[in-house]
Amino acid sequence: MISSEITTFEQMVLSDLEKMEHKKNRDNLTHQERKALRELMQDDDIVIKPADKGGGIVIMTADYYNNEAMRILGDATTYRHLKKDPSMDFKHIFHDYLDQGHLLGILNNNELKYLKIDHPKIPIFYFLPKIHKNLENPPGRPIISGIGSISSRLSEYLDKQLQPYVTTTETYLKDTIEMINILMDADWKDGDILVTSDVQSLYTIIPHNRGIEAAQFFLEKDNKLLPEQVDFILKGIHLILEHNYFWFLEEFYLQISGTAMGTRFAPSFANLFMAHWENSFLSNWSTNLVFYRRYIDDIFFIWRGGEEALKLFLDFLATNDRGIILTSNWSKTEVIFLDLKIFVENDTIKTKTHFKDVDCNSFIERRSCHLPQWLNAVPKGQFLRMKRNCTNISDFDTQSTKLRSDFADKGYNIHTLEDTRVEVRQMERLDLLKKKKKNPILNPMESIPFIFSYNPLNKAIRRSIKKHWPILQKDPI
């Protein structure tokens, strides 16, 4: 039974909605801007994509884009051209697999209904230009957009199955904050070397059998999983890897090596592949490896034992039988890892934010139609990031001043920005680096998000709901 308070609240809000002026939406672009945008959208001679790194926008000729795409797809060790659309055949294969999981009791009715996609979309191939590698002729990072594809929900399911094993591996690194916290306790001695290594094209080089072998190794260590559950997960991984097809320029292709960047379970799969390899050598080099962590394909470690011994170690890693190729850099003073510059000062490891040469000011404009409180939180979030990243307050001052200028260029009030910068400057860095504890909510109903699409009347609707909210609060239920 609906209470009188709920009924009254509904009537009051609906009454306000009826009174609101439904004016014709005012275009936020000028006539010339709208015309230019339309012409760009209709121009088949150019392709516009976000940069792989740096937040910039890259405009390429269609000829260059298509030629680079065909160069990538021309790698016969990774891709194979298909003569026809395999969608229907693959759909039956996936559905048979899911039905079998349901018969075995591994999937319940709701899971089967969710994972089965009756009208799947065809995955689309595209690439992001790596302007940080070459500004004039950027190579592409291949991406397969598989949203709504036959394997998309199964990939999501498998990712949830694999994630718990990823986070418990010895070398797992969650994020920059965790990296900073660990480095604060790292043992540094004179002569130690900072080393970073990057795995070249990790997602596409993973041999299917070695990747599945790695997943099996970690799954079988879990005594809580039944053999048929392990088998179901491994078959699902195999199914996605062997049926990773996509479309580009009216043609269909199949990826025959590695996993697609873009599918949900790819990072977990790649993490387990790398962790399985690392398990084979880490214990043998524990004397030299003072510290070793990896964020998917980016590795950082502190080496003790001299440069010649380090070269021997890197040569040893290069002789692996998994196709892993590392690009390594080392220094006794500073290296770049993720978004950090890690450096040694007074025999102490310190950090500050690293900015790439291709970084652009891609912060959201203050005149955006997002809620004001959301927009105002964006600069503070970035100032907090700077505060966490910078060991020295002098580095924070330099970087936060530049950040303030970037936001001012986007229309944010310079005085409000400075007040926020000073507020964050006075905060204790150690407190900001602590893991936040989730506050238990006594009544989940007190924290229900209200999510809806943008509408010019959103502010008025919000005011109406807030105005009449006390009526609901009187509801005894």
UniProtKB/TrEMBL annotation:
Residues in Reverse transcriptase domain copies: 109-360
Superkingdom in the source lineage: Eukaryota
InterPro entries, per database record: RT_dom
Annotated Pfam families: RVT_1
Record protein name field: Reverse transcriptase domain-containing protein
